[in-house]
Amino acid sequence: MKIQMNFKLIVGYIQFVDLETGFWEIIENEDKYRISNMPDALKHENLRIAAMVEIIENEMSIFMSGKSIKIIEYKIIK
Predict the structure, then answer these.
(1) 14 CB-contact burial (10 Å; exposed 0-12 / middle 13-18 / buried 19+)
(2) What is the rounded distance in angstroms from the CA atom of residue 65 to the CA atom of residue 32?
C-alpha cells in the first residue's frame, strides 16, 4: 500500500458561501478550496491568511466548488 500526501501552501482570503447549508472556502487568485475542518478563529469574511493545507482527493460533497482541503497550519495576514 502506498500512501501519498498532497500538501500545498495557499495564500488567499476566506469567504463563506451561503448555498444550501453553507460552507467556507479559501480563494487564492482564481482557485477555490473548500475547507473541511474550518477553525472558529478563521470564520470571518475576507480574512487574509497563509495556510499549509492537505488536499483531500477522495472526499465527496454536495458543493461544487474547488478542491476539498484540510488546514494543517495557518497564519492570519494583516
Answers:
(1) buried
(2) 7
Q: Which domains does the chain have, with CATH numbers?
A: 7-76 (2.40.50)
Grid cell 495556510 is found at 51
pTM tops 0.85: no
Looking at the DSSP assignment, which residues form a beta bridge with residue 28? 31
Report helix, strand or coil for 34.
Answer: strand
> Which residues, 6 or more positions from 66, have their beta carbon under 8 angstroms from its beta carbon?
25, 31, 32, 33, 34
pLDDT tens for residues 35-66? 999 999 999 999 999 999 999 877 655 556 67
